[in-house]
Automatic annotation (TrEMBL):
Species of provenance: Nymphaea colorata (pocket water lily)
GO biological process, one term: NAD+ biosynthetic process
GO molecular function terms listed in the Swiss-Prot or TrEMBL record: glutaminase activity; NAD+ synthase (glutamine-hydrolyzing) activity
The organism's place on the tree of life at top rank: Eukaryota
Keywords of the record: Ligase
Ligase among keywords: yes
Name of the protein this chain belongs to: Uncharacterized protein
Gene Ontology CC annotations of this record: cytoplasm
Any coiled-coil regions, as ranges: none
Record bears the keyword Protein biosynthesis: no
Length: 43
């Protein structure tokens, strides 16, 4: 649990904001990786 890992440094609402931010940008970049052709990855 990230709240326990970051206990003392961040509040639970700050952890929630970081997780939401991460998954928002992860999903946008994950979409880019699934639509690229294999030849593009090799370059």
């Amino acid at each position: 649990n990230l709240v326990h890992v970051w206990h003392g440094r961040l509040t639970s609402s700050e952890v929630a904001a970081k997780v939401k931010h991460f998954f928002k940008y992860y999903s946008m970049n994950r979409h880019k990786m699934t639509v690229l052709t294999p030849s593009y990855h090799a370059e």
